[in-house]
Amino acid sequence: MMEKILIVDDEEDFCYFVKKNLEAISNYKIIIATRGRKGIQIARKEKPDLILLDIMMPGIGGLEVLKKLKGNEKTQNIPIIMLTAKDEDKSRIKALGSFCDDYIIKPVENLVLKGKIHKVLSITK
To answer: Could you say which of 22, 50, 51, 104 has the lowest number of CB atoms within 10 Å?
Structure first.
């Protein structure tokens, strides 16, 4: 079965780079949302197997999206990996405290991304 991954990040180039790389190595269906509110809508409708969620976005930021997803019955069990360009402990601790499953600091190396996705998906199956 093809696993669905939702990428919620306002950097479109990053989204398509990740999409291309993940589809090349695995049988993933990648869905992209470039705004937090859209990401919430897609997550509720599509129920992806995993969400990659950027912390810093215009409008509703990633931590707010995380809270909304984890507070909704339809999406509360979807594993989430937070993406951040900020190498600050405060952001990491806040994200992990809000029930995210892991985090990745951008720019991200392909092997790190693939490894973390595989790890989170294998734990939640």
So the answer is: 104
pLDDT greater at residue 50 or residue 104 = 50
* Predicted pLDDT of residue 80: 94
Summarize pLDDT for 7-38 with one digit per residue, the tens: 999 999 999 999 998 988 888 999 999 999 99
* Tokens standing for residue 92: 């990491």
Q: Which domain holds residue 72?
A: 3-124
How many domains, the chain?
1
- The CATH number covering residue 9 comes to 3.40.50.2300
| DSSP labels, 37-56 | HHHHHHHHHH--SEEEEES-
